[in-house]
Amino acid sequence: MFEFTEEQIQRYSRQIxxxxxxxxxxxxxxxxxxxxxxxxxxxxxxxxYLAAAGVxxxxxxxxxxxxxxxxxxxVLHSTATLNRSKVESARETLSRINPDIRIDTYNEKxxxxxxMGLINDYDIILDGSDNFPTRxxxxxxxxxxxxTLISGSIFRFEGxxxxxxxxxxxxxxxxxxxxxxxPGLVPSCQEAGVLxxxxxxxxxxxxxxxxxxxxxxxSSLAGRLLLYDALQMRFREVKVRKDKNCPLCSEHPTITxxxxxxxxxxx
Length: 267
Description:
Elements: H1 6-11, H2 13-16, H3 22-30, E1 33-37, H4 43-53, E2 57-61, H5 86-97, E3 102-106, H6 115-119, E4 124-127, H7 132-145, E5 148-155, E6 158-164, H8 173-176, H9 189-192, H10 196-215, E7 224-229, E8 234-239, H11 261-264
Parallel strand pairs: 1-2, 1-4, 2-3, 4-5
Antiparallel strand pairs: 5-6, 6-7, 7-8
Helix pairs in contact: 4-5, 4-10
């Protein structure tokens, strides 16, 4: 049975004293395995707080290198790690925060060929990707692998967040968006811009959802879409219903395997 050292008890003491967490909850956190899609704007704050909370194993996939334009919002990285791979920059930062946890990094692109093997060993998937092909790929793979998916996205001054459990008779991403938008319809953050702290808000909320799912406390965002407007400083919630005609998670699906997503939807 896993036992904490005196140093670990001190490290996590502010969580352990919460009645909803306690020693049992902290042990669940220590035994949890969370996989992050992206070490960018959303993955950065999520990874920082998951590592600080003591999540025992964190996996991060990202094929990019640290660019100066990233530093306005991607707080895992710094000027000192410019031009280095994001996953190695992330590993260094997270190891300094918590040397007790295991950090697995994957300096590669996420594809329909590698995703099933990558997420297989993890309990919860956090999607911080910035394009529709990846979001649909991650959603479909999580459904087939029966994984809980916490999906976040940001654009200019607005963000959204939901938890997807299509395999547990809850809505999946395709219940929200059955088809990707036409290529070029939605501009990227590089084209439209994004408020840096917005990434922090949504990324931290993703981490909070993950910890709740790990411990088994509170109300899940499954079936709910949380919308955040930073300009108006307003949160609102939209109920999401499972689509009985969903091409993926309905009783009569038309999608029964992973698609060639880059061809299916190119941004």
